[in-house]
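Complex 228.
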Amino acid sequence: RSIIQLDAIRKVFTTDEVETHALSDIHLEIQEGEFISIAGPSGCGKSTLLSILGLLDTPTHGRYTLNGKPVAGLNLSERARIRNHEIGFIFQSFNLIGDLTVYENVELPLVYRGLPLGERRTRVMEALEEVGMSHRSKHLPSQLSGGQQQRVAVARAVGGRPSILLADEPTGNLDSTNGDAVMDLLKELHRRGSTICMVTHDQRFAQHADRTIHLFDGRVVEESFAKA
Ligand code: ADP
Ligand code: ADP
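Predicted structure with adenosine-5'-diphosphate bound:
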């Protein structure tokens, strides 16, 4: 089953009458359960692509279909609703809220969704269990290491049971030990059925994915597959 389909996607930024072609003619299909990585040098369009996939930005041309539904034509609140239900984000800088506890951080998107207290509690504890952070639920982010903070961010992303996890350089702010631990966690989530699309410029991490899309200058220049 196809979760995401991009057809002839282009993104042009215009600043002071100068056009930047951030993405040109991108075709991409992501199947349920796939683990995809998007690789390429700085400025090649990785973040732009992830922003479009996550409904944070809109393409200039082309068609985006998410779970069989065209994304074009959705209004802002419909986009926010789909983002909240279908997409789990993991950022390079964790993006936890500093004055909320671990528990409250993971709970917040579920509050936005209007889930009742009991359901929220079950999901938060399940998600924290899944990332091995349930013993830290009352801590503040500042009391955790970077690797632990990223595991909490992963719990926040999976707590909403999204169709797809979008991870933007999830290991970018971590040393290699913590980076490896977060990669192992993503691989475990994938093994249990999660669909993941991860941006990384680190070849060492890209090779953990089933398939790597190599971007250069806004175009797909190569597609490589994991050795079985
Ligand atoms: P990457 O994530 O691979 O480093 P980006 O997607 O951030 O690349 O950027 C792709 C290209 O689009 C770059 O040339 C960048 O300068 C340009 N770009 C990205 N965002 C904007 C923006 N908001 N306005 C103008 N140009 C942008
Ligand atoms: P709006 O632009 O309508 O005010 P927001 O910017 O508050 O909406 O939220 C946009 C989307 O991001 C929504 O789906 C919301 O649930 C989600 N969101 C906002 N803040 C957070 C957060 N701290 N953690 C997780 N999800 C969030």
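Residues 176-191 form the longest helix (16 residues).
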